[in-house]
């Protein structure tokens, strides 16, 4: 009993020392903003010296030359979720490479959002990928994201897949993003991605609907050698006449009506509408030397609107002058979303749809003061 009481006393005194250290750190941080910083520090030093003297006198602390006194085992410090700002116990927090932490719900939502078309994959925080597919941590991530450990009633559409299924879906998305010559199901009601492993002798079998697609012409499977039929050649001829471009990765035809020459295909490939070449190199830097903007493309749609509104063929000749080309081009160059690198977000208390993930936000939204882009809290944090 006496030994147990001694241990309790030692632990209590060591806890007091720990609290004093925390108080001293807090006092030092606020000393420049208050008038009593020095007095507080002096009082803490005196109190600490008194506690250490008691420990030494009772035989709990070593004398000079001995090893320093052991630190008692203290409860782990709780973490805060960077997504919802909820305080988390250590076992309920997933630590990221940037030292931020996620709760189970926010990590699952971040992962699921990255599966959607046009969203950066893998999900990121502080521009560092979240290691959801790391082989060494896979079992831990699967366990962390198990549905029976999450409040599924607040997950909505993100509660469909369990932990292992969620990471299997992540594997599928990764294969799609990394495949250069992508093949999608030719069935217009399906259009699912067909991985290279499901393509045999240029015939791709869709797991979702079972239809077969030619991996060369991307049309329904036709058997034998791909004919590259005359109709396809006519379409390509019209595309050449009209100045359309083809994605260098999946060969999808793209027509530009308005905006800049920086194109992003549904397959994720960024290319130039002028020359058809890649827009960025392997290091992420722009390599295309073509003009970023074409004045005619920027204001063409507005000129047509003026013509439709007021009528008359002659007005098409005057529409360009009415628009004020130079100011319009300058405004587009400054405010176009692909040119904005530092958004100036403003909190808006209203319901609206996120332009990035297209989810409806019922309570509030963030709007960029520079380009007017409207995004939800998660896309602002994870994607932009």
Notes on the structure:
- By secondary structure, this protein is α+β, with helices and mostly antiparallel strands.
- The chain is built from 10 helices and 20 strands.
- 16% of the residues are buried.
- Pfam families: IBR, IBR_1.
- GO terms for molecular function: ubiquitin protein ligase activity; zinc ion binding.
- It catalyses: [E2 ubiquitin-conjugating enzyme]-S-ubiquitinyl-L-cysteine + [acceptor protein]-L-lysine = [E2 ubiquitin-conjugating enzyme]-L-cysteine + [acceptor protein]-N(6)-ubiquitinyl-L-lysine.
- One of its GO terms (biological process) is protein ubiquitination.
Brief summary:
The protein has 384 residues and is of the alpha+beta class.
The largest pleated sheet is described as: 3 strands, antiparallel
Overall domain count: 4
Cα gyration radius (Å): 31 Å
In spatial order, strands of the major sheet run 9-10-11
Mean pLDDT across all amino acids = 69
SSE string, helix = H, strand = E?
HHEEEEHEEHHEEEEEHEEEEHHHEEEEEH
Q: Name the overall outline.
A: globular
Portion in beta strands: 5-15%
Q: End-to-end span in angstroms?
A: 61 Å
Record field, number of beta strands: 20
Low-confidence stretches: 1-5, 29-36, 60-77, 319-340
- How many DSSP helices? 10
Question: Helices and strands: which structural class?
Answer: alpha+beta
Helix content: 25-40%
